[in-house]
Amino acid sequence: MRPSPLTRRSVLAGGAATAAAFTALPAAARATAAPPAPGAPAPGTAPASASGAAGSAPYRWRTAVIGGTGFITGVLFHPRVRGLAYARTDIGGAYRWDDHAARWTPLTDHLGWDDWNLLGVEAMAVDPAHPDRVYLALGTYTQPWSGNGAVLRSDDRGRTWARTDLGVKLGANEDGRGTGERLLVDPRDPATLWLGTRHDGLLVSRDRGATWATAPFPATPSATGQGVTLLVAAGRTVYAGWGDGGGALYRTTGGGAWEPVPGRPGGASARVPVRAAYDAGARALYVTYADAPGPNGQTDGSVHRLDTATGAWTDVTPARPGPGDTFGYGGVATDPRRTGTVVVSTNNRWGAVDTLFHSADGGRTWTSLKDTAVLDVSETPYLRWGGGQPKFGWWIQALALDPFDSRHLVYGTGATLYGTRDLRRWAPEIRGLEESSVRQLVSPPSGEAHLLSGLGDIGVMYHERLTASPSRGMAADPVFGTATGLALAPLRPQYVVRAGWGDHGNGAWSADGGRTWAPFASQPAVARDAPGPIAVSADGRVLLWSFTHWDGTRYAAHRSTDNGATWAEVPTFPKGAAPVADPVDPRRFWAYDTAAGTVYTSADGGATFTAAAGGLPSGDPQFRIAAAPGRSGDLWLSAKERGLFRSTDGGRAFTRLDGCRASYALGFGKAAPGGDGYPAVYQTGTVGTTTGVYRSDDTGRTWLRINDDAHQWGWTGEVITGDPRVHGRVYLGTNGRGIQYGDPV
What we know:
The chain has 745 residues and is an all-beta fold. Helix content is 0%, strand content 37%. The protein has a five-stranded mixed β-sheet with strand order 1-51-50-49-48, with no helix packed on it. It has a five-stranded mixed β-sheet with strand order 2-55-54-53-52, with no helix packed on it. 58% of the residues are buried.
């Protein structure tokens, strides 16, 4: 389900499947407003407090283990180096497979705040003649507000990169992101690279990606089409699939001139060529087709083989889509060690569930590998979807066969990468690859888990350990998709509530710190289509639930005093605002009306709200307030490019903190030893001229940058929190690289 290019919610099939972790980039990543001049207060605020310039502190950064959780859009084995492979994702960057360690190494974590749009990988390519060379085409969206794409090139397998910015946009998180590859090293000249774009035709580089120019091409690009969907080498000939207007295929054999491939496979005239693979021994090119580029929206498809010597097409479709069983075809792979061996995947087959078809005779006969598959997801229990059985797959467009091992096959899904070594037993080959889009983080002050997380598409996780996937998997009863709220009661930390998109209810509570959950006995009617953030009073007796539809429509908040059994509308609560509970006084709540720039306060347990401080930064729904733990009425306001503000009188007045030019996400952790006892303050923000991750141990007077240029992860403006039990430990939510956590070195 894809309501818009920016806002997408989960696709659940009876609570047993989920789509990719492909959440919208919030407006924070696209803001262009200039920050106020240093020391200049925003309207209606007190003068700025003094603060110094930022220093830095060395940190060790690691990724909390969940196991994938996002859409794997492509996998490439190097044809001449055993154990060398690369993977791409729609919003989480690219990875290299370390065969010795049996895990993936991230290659694009160095991309920073201003380059958030480059965390989506549109395509990748390897050079068969030069094993250390690898290329990435980056760009997440093609909308006018997004930046242009870029090509990265490496001579050391992605350890270091050179970069060329393009004059066109790429769309790694748009429809068609599972097609390809759209990037190719020319088999006749390793200095020549081809790059297919969606809306700007075919590009060519004659200097290994350093410069690019438009290549003459027979098809005319459009502003809304798919353009070049695939590029593949068949011997010394390069083929290109065209996604607009009838499944056309083009080729070039020398000199760079392109021509249509004579003939056309029967039945494919209205379809999109999705992927292609070449069998050199048989001189056969296999092409998968679907009636839409996918991964969504496909209802019909086919597989065809082109004899590149004679030009003859043969329909080798394993199974025909039909009424009650609609789907397209996606991935395709051939075996260089065994002529005639080919594997293809179905895609968007929700009824019978997607499968892989395997043939050893050039597509004359096929075997469904799903029918004999044994899935072992013990290392990533969330793939059981709340206690059910794991699914063989969905959104299967990435498919690769190891050129050195005919029985080593891998395929990507909307949440993981499965692999086999015997074509029967399958398990995730996903270690090191984390693509969660993280929405909420809570670090409890006590209990077994140091972290609870709320994620895009995958719901809520209970992390007993940070180095292993949560053993309880995705929180059940009900099983959620994208989480929209997560909160615990500070005076009763075992009591936790959550909200999100779910097919069986949109809110739940836990009395054991998030280990087990029960759905609210009832929910407001608006919760079905517009679940938003939720807060719980310090003692756990009052719930406040706010509601915002994915299209931005805001609704009145509702209140419950009986653990969600009944709900009452709160008319004086600003519609759509995020409720914030006082961590000490159960009677106090706050809400920030971002449209008006006004803080609202409640002293009667959230029953009524009245306006307090006004004239604060307004106009952006991502402005937010946070309450400092262990203190009553101590509020902090992150106002993005407008800066960071603090109130010590319960929201009646705010003071801007000088030296912090921008603040995007804010959280608190354990106070520094030997200090004044005030919680450590963490933020993603801009201090001086550098946007990064910062810690302050002196109430925001000075800041230490705790990430570095190798650890930036693109856009990190959604959520951050410290650990209340471990000073210096911080948990950071990313939009596509999962949960990053850091400890002082």
